[in-house]
What we know:
Number of strands: 0
Number of domains: 2
Radius of gyration: 23 Å
Mean pLDDT: 84
Helix content: over 70%
Amino acid sequence: MAIDTNQLIFAIILAVLLAGTLAYLFWKQRKAIKKGEKKDDSGGGGHEPSVRPLQLQAYERLILLTERIALPNLIGRVNQPGLNVREMQSLLTQSIRQEFEHNITQQIYVTAEAWDAVRNLKEQNLLIINQVSSFLPPEASGMDLNKALLELLMQSPKASLQNIVSEALAFEAKKLM
């Protein structure tokens, strides 16, 4: 019984020390990042020369992502004849999620607002696809879904955030140049 208690106490102490060390390292890293941001704002050198190309590349990749998940482009790329409405819905939503997940690491290099805009675009497109497909009968074809989506976008072009998000990303990228 004493051995089990001693092992438990040792494991708890080890876990607390590990957690404390990780918390300290995290705090130290955040402090260094904030210090670097202040240097960047005041025109100081910092690590700016090595980060700026990564930031520009991130904005470039996110603009490409917005183009790839724009519904007209997505439909043109993944369209497969012979699918029913649910299969096409699944294919479209899966493609959006995969594109987004492939670029998820880019959020470290862009502003929170830019990342939120990209995430909102993804969510909006998923919502539109799911809403439009829910109004179609189960026996509808994938082509019916694609047609309904494109008609919706043609009737109300402002329904899509894609252009706004792309312009916002381009604006932020230009501020870095």
